[in-house]
Amino acid sequence: MQEKIIIKGAREHNLKNINLELPRNKMIVFTGLSGSGKSSLAFDTIFAEGQRRYIESLSAYARQFLGGMQKPDVDEIEGLSPAISIDQKAQSANPRSTVATITEIYDYLRVLFARIGHPYCPECGHKIERMTVDEMVENIKLSLRGAIATKQSQHQQKNEEIASSASGLLAMTILAPVVRGRKGEYYQMLYDLYNSGFLEVRVDGKMKSLR
User: Fold this and answer.
1) 106-115 exposure pattern, b = at least 16 Cβ within 10 A, e = fewer
2) Residue 89: predicted pLDDT
3) Strand extents, DSSP E, 65-172
């Protein structure tokens, strides 16, 4: 990929056969008096040619819905990629709007990263993968066994005591808060939990059977 965008012979609107080179991957500002050709160069020449090339790269089926675009009045533009244009009158009232949200590219980027992205845990660095319930249980058991083995190596004098408690540690109870910091009696909620297959709940720090 070229490091510059080279424009030769731009004559769109009031441009008078302009030749210039623009660095890629840089923020560039066009300044000048009103009518000096800023918009003609940025929108009607550079952006128009980038958009035209992008449309021409699509299939004939897609082009029939978009229509054809006229080539701007310029001899040649080198190093130009597909372009996005945001007019100053099209600003959103949302203060959190970005280039991606205004141009609606954000929706496609979100789908793209969701499909090809590889998420990793920010704490341990392990890759996050889809697992079944049985695989989750087995991973938790392996983690517990690893923790027990580490504790055994650190406290050799208590091997018998730790080994006797190992089987108990592998019998796990996973709890998730449903009601927190609110008083009241939740008979219907407990009944619904029982119908969903739960047999025990912890109420005020104590395990209670739902049967």
Assistant:
1) eeeeeeeeee
2) 62
3) 74-78
**Is residue 69 within 8 Å of 46, Cβ to Cβ?**
no
Give the Cα-Cα-Cα angle 206, 207, 211 (nearest 5 degrees). Answer: 135
Residue type, 184: G
d(CA 200, CA 6): 72
Angle at 74 between CA 73 and CA 80, to 5 degrees: 120
CA distances from 71 to 10, 43, 44, 45 (A): 11, 13, 10, 9
Strands in 48-190 per DSSP E: 74-78
Burial of residue 131 (CB within 10 Å: 0-12, 13-18, 19+) is: exposed
**DSSP assignments along 63-88, one per residue:** HHHH---PPPSEEEEES--------T
Report whether pLDDT(141) > 70: yes
Q: Is residue 48 packed enough to be buried (19+ CB in 10 Å), middle (13-18) or exposed (0-12)?
A: buried
* Helix 159-169 / helix 133-154 crossing angle, nearest 10 deg: 170
Q: Rounded to whole angstroms, how far apart are CA atoms 10 and 82? A: 18
Q: How confident is the model at residue 35 (pLDDT cuts 50, 70, 90)?
A: confident
